[in-house]
Amino acid sequence: MEPGQWSGLGHLERDLILTDEDFSRIRQLIYQRAGIVLAEHKREMVYSRLAKRLRHHGLTRFSDYLEKLARQPDAKEWEAFTNALTTNLTAFFREMHHFPLLAEHVRKSSGPVRIWSAAASTGEEPYSIAMTLLETLGPRASEARVVATDIDTEALTRARAGVYPVEQVRKIEESQVKRFFHKGRGQHEGLARVRPEVSSMVEFLSMNLLAPQWPLKGPFDAIFCRNVMIYFDKQTQARILERFAPLLKPDGLLFAGHSENFSYISKVFRLRGQTVYTLA
Question: What's CA 97's distance to the chain center, in Å?
Fold first, then answer.
């Protein structure tokens, strides 16, 4: 066995062979495909997530899997490869301080409200936005729309279903649970489904932020791009921010994640409050 084939795996025996060269190639491919920068310490994560794809194809070497991808640049497996390496960490009303700000902003707006959730994951964020609009706009909410995009097609499938474990929904205020969710019974016991008045406001689209063309048009009252820029390098972050700018209304808001700071990346936006930006 060549040195480095089991680097970072400790004493655990593995049935699949991931060499240093394979890992380097995977990092390069996911950066090219999705702009995601995988650090050296993510080797274990890469192994565990892609191992399922290798076993699915009856392969034992990561090099064989990567060659299979290289031979078929338009194959469906590229989607599975990207899905496997995409991190989906989300929750209803995550970073709660953003939603009162959103409510205050749309309350003063005129015309139909449009919001873009640019990293929709499994749907908790866009549904939280939709609930906020319903609570804030009253009859005007019938014209409001949330566009929700993500690169992970498996996550979007779950998002469209709008079904979540009750334990996850219990973190929301009881009044919101009663108004916006159906609790499952019988074989659906322990699950909750988003009510149609919420789900009908949200349109889910598969989209890569690195794609040369985006399948949506502005202007938006607000863009939520939270906890996704941390996976990109600064050059990619700056390019995406510049593409956000013309899609926002002049007084529109850009919401970032708690660990993200756009002030030092682009002069297009200026900080308005805690991880909230407006056009400069």
Answer: 19
CA atoms within 13 A on the CB side of 186: 0
Half-sphere exposure of 148 (CA within 13 A, CB side): 28
CA 81, CA 95: separation in Å to the nearest integer? 29
d(Cα 43, Cα 20) in Å, to the nearest integer? Answer: 9
Which element (helix H / strand E) includes 65?
A: helix 62-71
> Is 49 designated active site?
yes
* Residue showing tokens 């699915």: 56
Residues 108-132 have pLDDT tens digits of 998 899 999 999 999 999 999 999 9
Q: Which residue is catalytic, options 25, 33, 49, 179?
A: 49
Q: Which amino acid is at 43?
A: R
- Between the two ends of the chain, the Cα-to-Cα distance in Å is 56
pTM here is: 0.81
- Choosing from 27, 53, 114, 150, which is the catalytic residue? 150
Query: Annotated catalytic, 152?
Result: no
